Amino acid sequence: MKKISFLLIVMANYCFANFAFADGHIPGQLSFSIGSISTSYTESESQIKATDGTTSTKTTPYSGTAASMPLDAEFEYFPTLKRSYFIRGGGPVMASTPDRFFYFSTGANFYFSSIGSPTYVSDQRIEIKIAPKFRYYAGPLIGAGYLVYSTKSEVKNDIILELGAQAGVIYSVNPKWGLRGEVNMSRGIGALLSSMTMKILLGTTYNLNY
């Protein structure tokens, strides 16, 4: 069985590398997830000022954590069998604090131990459909976030540039639908503060045009 699976993958790679002889199609993928997101932030020293009404010039940097349940949506495009590019965005639907964090990011996923998406390849004499059961991936991301946070005296907001990485697994229920779990961490720098964000996301994937 392993030899047959290996042979199919080799044939699929060959067909995709030779479009003059075969018609290949790697469908895009949509994902929708919920989970938890936690953003720890600390104001930079240049922005420090007293927040309790005192006139003291010695004030420690204000820090806090914004925790919420986000709704996350992502579109993933596959230029090759084991690499994809994505765009995603999300924001809180429920939160345990008054603080809020909205985000948008783009990046790449590199799949290992299997191909990245259920795949279709055909020519005049053969038709191959490959639908891996488990797909594992990891990759870098870059993005921007909008954080609304409250100090003791006022509500502030900041736009944050983020750099980070993600890793996850997809379990295919059928060629169209799958279940997805992902862990995502990023470091952010804004005009007012620096941040560290961790996302744990659980959701579904839908393969387009398979």
In terms of structural class, how would the helical and strand content be classed?
mainly beta
Q: Based on CA inertia axes, which overall geometry fits?
A: elongated
Tally of alpha and pi helices = 1
Distance N terminus to C terminus? 24 Å
Number of strands: 11
What radius of gyration results from the CA coordinates?
Answer: 22 Å
Compressed to H and E, one letter per element, the order equals HEEEEEEEEEEE
**Main beta sheet:** 8 strands, antiparallel, barrel
Relative helix content:
under 10%
Overall mean pLDDT stands at: 81
Parts with pLDDT < 50 across at least 5 consecutive residues: 1-12, 14-24
* Strand-residue proportion: over 45%
Strand order of the largest sheet: 2-3-4-5-8-9-10-11
Task: Supply database-style keywords.
210 residues; 1 helix; mainly beta; eight-stranded antiparallel barrel; 11 strands
Question: Care to give the gist of this entry?
Answer:
With 210 residues, the protein is mainly beta. The protein contains 1 helix and 11 strands, in the order αβββββββββββ. The protein has one helix at residues 2-17, and strands at 23-25, 29-43, 63-80, 83-95, 100-112, 119-122, 127-130, 134-150, 155-172, 177-190, 193-207.
